[in-house]
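Submission checklist for the structure archive. All mandatory fields must be present; incomplete records are returned to the submitter.

[x] Identifier: Phloem protein 2
[x] Organism: Clitoria ternatea
[x] Residue count: 126
[x] Sequence attached
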Amino acid sequence: MIEVAELKEVYWLQVCGKFHTRKLSEGMLYKVCFIVRLKDSATGWEDPIILELKLPGGKTQQWKEILTMKPRERWIEILVGEFIATEKYVGEMDISLNGTDGTDWKQGLIIKGVEIKPDIQYYWKA
């Protein structure tokens, strides 16, 4: 059984997590994504959500994504950021999804989790 978080109805959405980069292979390019599904009945996603990846050492990546046009009723990846695992980025990284703009109530988003996956076609040697 897979446990997921389902958004019933909120005005303000903030999902945050941390992950230590020492668990990653040095020299690999990693992509960080939220795995989500929008229900057919999902509403309130006309305003962009903000996805943010803060790496150890202070580098921050930020994306805006509008979910309205995303496919419904299937799992999709929403990119948060990507980076090459090096000793420059050893420590905890912060991962977040924020839906705090707009005036509409939000509902119908299911969050399965965050995926940190290597791009096996890319390998960098220091």
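[x] Structure attached
Curator remark: The mean pLDDT is 91. The CA atoms of residues 25 and 99 lie 32 Å apart.
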